[in-house]
């Protein structure tokens, strides 16, 4: 593609970002083109707006927050079978696809590679990806289907992820695995300047799990799903080794209630556990962050002594494909995070910070819940469906996930 360098210079001057071309003349032609392509794809008005918002500080939106209704999977009694049969019929008809969000690296775990390739220390030494595939394979056999598996990578780890699957011969499932890459946004410093990475290209960061809807639409994966006859899509994270992506009860409830979105929850460990909780904001399904909720709300209980805001959002959600199309038609609002970022300054010096120095911008998956009129929430058991691997030690670590995984599978035998 031909780029008009003068027009690009003019644009950069307009937004006070001329430094992005400081090293252009000393770059190889292929890298020059890559840099120009990056610049052409930047929405500078958006970046300017996001920077201005960082100066406003945290603003709690003026929203009316109230509890949301939920169903407990293990208190459905005779309804359990009813919902299960509805969901099972749809699964057997090939109407379900699963999406795994796997754009992260295993850095916090001391792992050099995509998080999905991490071995949590089981006797089998299977990676997170293989544990998820084992579950899909088991469900395929149970329902006599081939459930398509869509894996969202990032620009940072896509190549390594695809290489891992190739080396493992796609676990014999190549025709049913589809990769797509999540979006990215430039990182900026405290003056609003876009950072230059160590490769002298623009330093970008993945746009958060909320980017999954837009990425599914833009990458053509939604169209692929339609071609395959898919009507329902489960979206979950790669770091939960007990995630149940195929759940006929959850699906049956969504279909029976006529809603286009459903989510799984687990009871908060305590009123002040640092997790988001399902709720309604201004009458629409949403998630209230622990930082947004008052102590009084966090501790409030109903007539049965249950927490009113006790349904933790565990990133296990089911959507009708029409909802994904709607949610992916426009970018979600972005939230800023202040992070440490190594970069190249305007003079060509490498800067390695010892404290946060840059903003990255992320969209949250649950910010799209307001696009649907209602949402079914199904409470499940933490010990059966939620074993996240986020920290190297302590809570939500390989050790805790391994214990949960082993205990669950001992019960299954």
Walkthrough of the structure:
The protein is α/β, with parallel strands linked by helices. The protein has a domain at about 70-265 and about 310-385: Spore Coat Polysaccharide Biosynthesis Protein SpsA, Chain A (Alpha-Beta Complex), CATH 3.90.550.10. Helices cover about 30% and strands about 20% of the residues. The protein is built from 13 helices and 18 strands. The strands form five sheets. It has an eight-stranded mixed β-sheet with strand order 2-18-10-13-9-3-4-5, with helices on both faces. Strands 1-11-12 form a three-stranded antiparallel β-sheet, with no helix packed on it. A three-stranded antiparallel β-sheet has the order 7-17-14, covered by helices on one side. Helix 4 packs across helix 9. The longest helix is centred in the first third of the chain and has 16 residues, at about 130-145. The chain is globular, with a radius of gyration of 22 Å.
Q: Which SSEs are present, and which pair or pack?
A:
Blueprint: H1 5-14, H2 29-40, H3 44-54, E1 65-66, E2 71-72, H4 78-92, E3 96-101, H5 128-143, E4 149-153, H6 158-167, E5 177-181, E6 184-186, E7 188-189, E8 204-206, H7 212-218, H8 221-227, E9 232-237, H9 248-257, E10 261-267, E11 277-281, E12 284-288, H10 295-299, E13 311-320, H11 321-327, E14 335-339, E15 343-344, E16 350-351, E17 358-362, E18 376-379, H12 382-385, H13 398-412
Parallel strand pairs: 2-18, 3-4, 3-9, 4-5, 10-18
Antiparallel strand pairs: 1-11, 6-8, 7-17, 9-13, 10-13, 11-12, 14-17, 15-16
Helix pairs in contact: 4-9
């Amino acid at each position: 593609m031909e780029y008009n360098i003068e027009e690009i210079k003019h644009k950069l001057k307009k937004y006070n970002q001329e430094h992005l071309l400081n090293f252009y003349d000393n770059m190889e032609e292929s890298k020059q083109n890559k840099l120009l392509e990056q610049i052409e794809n930047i929405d500078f008005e958006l970046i300017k707006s996001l920077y201005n918002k960082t100066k406003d500080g945290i603003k709690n939106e003026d929203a009316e927050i109230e509890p949301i209704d939920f169903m407990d999977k293990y208190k459905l009694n005779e309804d359990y079978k009813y919902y299960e049969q509805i969901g099972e019929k749809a699964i057997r008809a090939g109407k379900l696809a699963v999406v795994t969000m796997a754009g992260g690296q295993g850095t916090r775990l001391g792992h050099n590679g995509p998080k999905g390739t991490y071995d949590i220390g089981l006797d089998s030494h299977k990676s997170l990806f293989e544990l998820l595939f084992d579950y899909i394979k088991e469900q395929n056999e149970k329902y006599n289907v081939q459930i398509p598996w869509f894996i969202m990578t990032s620009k940072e780890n896509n190549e390594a992820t695809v290489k891992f699957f190739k080396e493992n011969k796609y676990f014999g499932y190549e025709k049913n695995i589809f990769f797509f890459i999540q979006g990215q946004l430039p990182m900026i410093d405290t003056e609003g300047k876009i950072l230059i990475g160590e490769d002298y290209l623009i330093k970008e960061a993945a746009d958060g799990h909320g980017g999954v809807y837009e990425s599914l639409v833009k990458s053509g994966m939604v169209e692929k799903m339609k071609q395959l006859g898919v009507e329902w899509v489960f979206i979950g994270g790669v770091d939960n080794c007990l995630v149940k992506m195929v759940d006929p009860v959850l699906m049956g409830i969504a279909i029976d209630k006529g809603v286009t979105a459903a989510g799984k929850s687990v009871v908060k460990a305590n009123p002040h556990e640092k997790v988001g909780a399902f709720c309604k904001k201004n009458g629409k399904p949403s998630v209230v962050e622990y930082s947004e909720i008052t102590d009084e709300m966090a501790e409030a209980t109903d007539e049965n002594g249950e927490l009113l805001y006790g349904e933790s959002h565990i990133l296990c959600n089911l959507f009708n494909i029409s909802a994904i199309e709607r949610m992916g038609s426009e970018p979600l609002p972005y939230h800023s995070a202040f992070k440490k970022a190594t970069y190249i300054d305007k003079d060509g010096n490498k800067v390695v910070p010892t404290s946060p120095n840059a903003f990255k911008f992320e969209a949250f998956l649950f910010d799209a819940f307001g696009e649907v009129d209602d949402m079914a929430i199904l409470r499940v058991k933490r010990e059966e469906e939620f074993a996240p691997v986020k920290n190297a030690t302590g809570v939500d670590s390989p050790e805790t996930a391994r214990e949960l995984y082993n205990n669950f599978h001992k019960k299954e035998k």
